[in-house]
Write a structure and sequence with these properties.
Layout lengths: L1 H4 L3 H18 L7 H35 L3 H17 L2 H12 L4 H8 L3 H19 L23 H10 L2 E7 L1 H5 L10 H4 L3 H4 L4 E7 L7 H9 L6 E3 L3 H7 L2 E4 L7 H13 L2 E5 L12 H6 L2 E7 L8 E6 L14 E5 L2 E6 L4 E6 L19 E8 L2 E6 L5 H4 L8 H9 L1 E3 L5 E3 L6
Parallel strand pairs: 1-2, 1-4, 2-3, 4-5, 5-12
Antiparallel strand pairs: 6-9, 7-8, 7-10, 10-11, 11-12, 13-14
């Protein structure tokens, strides 16, 4: 299996070791078929190595070509800037990067040098690369930055065409939140949303070019409902701690929040921080709206709203109501302003945050039926909205039948692929949108 993705013997050895390390790290929480887990993990690790090597060879070739064309002044500038960035690192980070990427030491050799386990050494190298990547982000985006052996986020693109070509071929890693807390949380009317309801849209994310990763609250992977969803939806090859903002930032391109009516503060804090750093956010169905509730500023921020209340259609939940496109966007190609939909009638009524853009909204502008005091002056019901949270893009989709958007006769392409690719680009300090490439150890 490894040879399908990684051909170098050293890469194959590294892949085998990484699979063993992941198994040892997670073995007490694996209640699935062990051989199936190992196979899925090996496939993920080897694919990452193959993609990493392909990017490295391509970028080194680009750099060699630029130098062969006589672009020596540009090369000198870059070398000076990188030397300056390296001097800005603390001694520990600089030593790790020099040994790993200049002296070409293996993780085992670095672990021996540090006197720690290979897994700890790998994490420390990854953290050092992350800090180096953050410093490199401040380099003038018009300067081409040659790569080290590591994958660094924030690669500058010379043109929009080059950016789109790279994005169309890159695998977007999407973290799917699977919450044990939300499964057990009743609403004020006594009902609750089961854990399968949280991930209802995941089958629509199972597309070429999208890799799904499980996001869970700590120590919950062995709980029946969580374990079953991870197994049934193929999320067990790699699990990320949903309370660890750094892990979310390093491992994911996009965070997917499904019908999570309850979110613990640590998860909310980590998600907000990761998105601020540049991870994309796909928020379906106003996550956290019951616990901690719509008064919580973190919940509102993830909704791209300043204030929000809730509306339920009279008689039964989700009665069909009209909605229409009010603004065009690249995630809804082919849908012109005025295009009509029929949507489920329940959802949030919002005063949208500054800078957010509503693309589709309910046509009849309903009044709140729950928490009406939170929105005394009315608002709109956004069905699809986009915005920015810090350095990351966000899409909010308040629609229990989101597939209806992509199934509209005028829609071009695959809705979720378009959304995830758009979200995988993070905002740089300059005016250009940058393609994020998480540094994974």
């Amino acid at each position: 299996m490894c040879r399908k993705y990684a051909h170098d013997p050293n890469d194959i050895a590294d892949a085998k070791q990484e699979v063993v390390l992941r198994y040892l790290r997670h073995r007490n929480r694996i209640e699935l078929n062990v051989f199936g887990w190992l196979a899925a993990t090996a496939r993920s690790v080897c694919a990452d190595i193959g993609r990493h090597r392909a990017r490295e060879w391509r970028r080194r070739a680009e750099w060699s070509l630029r130098e062969s064309r006589g672009d020596r002044d540009q090369a000198s500038i870059i070398r000076e800037q990188i030397a300056s960035v390296m001097r800005s690192l603390d001694d520990d980070d600089r030593a790790l990067i020099e040994r790993r990427f200049f002296e070409r030491l293996t993780i085992e050799a670095i672990a021996s040098w540090l006197g720690v386990s290979p897994a700890t050494a790998s994490r420390r190298v990854g953290s050092a690369v992350e800090r180096l990547g953050a410093l490199l982000d401040v380099i003038d985006e018009r300067v081409f930055v040659p790569p080290a052996d590591a994958v660094l986020r924030g690669r500058a693109r010379d043109s929009e065409r080059e950016e789109e070509t790279a994005l169309s071929t890159q695998t977007v890693r999407v973290g799917v939140m699977v919450s044990e807390l939300a499964m057990k949380t009743p609403t004020d009317e006594g009902w609750h949303i089961g854990i399968e309801g949280q991930v209802r849209s995941v089958p629509m994310l199972e597309r070429d070019g999208i890799e799904l990763v499980g996001m869970v609250e700590p120590d919950t992977t062995s709980i029946g409902g969580v374990e079953r969803v991870i197994r049934d939806f193929g999320l067990g090859a790699h699990i990320v701690d949903a309370t660890d903002a750094r892990a979310l930032y390093r491992e994911l391109d996009v965070i997917y929040l499904g019908t999570l009516i309850a979110m613990v503060p640590r998860v909310l804090d980590a998600v907000v921080r990761a998105v601020e750093l540049g991870v994309g956010l796909l928020n379906e169905h106003f996550a956290g709206s019951i616990i901690p509730g719509m008064r919580d500023q973190r919940v509102l921020r993830l909704m791209l709203a300043e204030r929000a209340a809730e509306h339920h259609t009279e008689g039964e939940h989700g009665k069909p109501r009209p909605a229409e496109v009010v603004r065009g966007h690249e995630i809804i190609p082919g849908l012109s302003v005025g295009t009509r939909f029929v949507v489920g009638g329940c959802g949030p009524v919002c005063a949208m945050a500054k800078g957010s853009t509503v693309l589709i909204e309910r046509a009849d502008r309903p009044a709140p039926t729950h928490q009406a005091e939170l929105l005394p002056n009315g608002g709109i019901m956004p069905i699809l909205a986009t915005g920015v949270i810090g350095g990351g893009r966000a899409v909010v989709l308040n629609q229990f039948l989101p597939e209806l958007i992509g199934k509209h006769p005028s829609y071009r392409g695959d809705f979720y692929v378009n959304v995830c690719r758009w979200l995988a680009r993070a905002e740089h300090e300059g005016s250009r949108w940058m393609l994020r490439t998480p540094a994974r150890s």
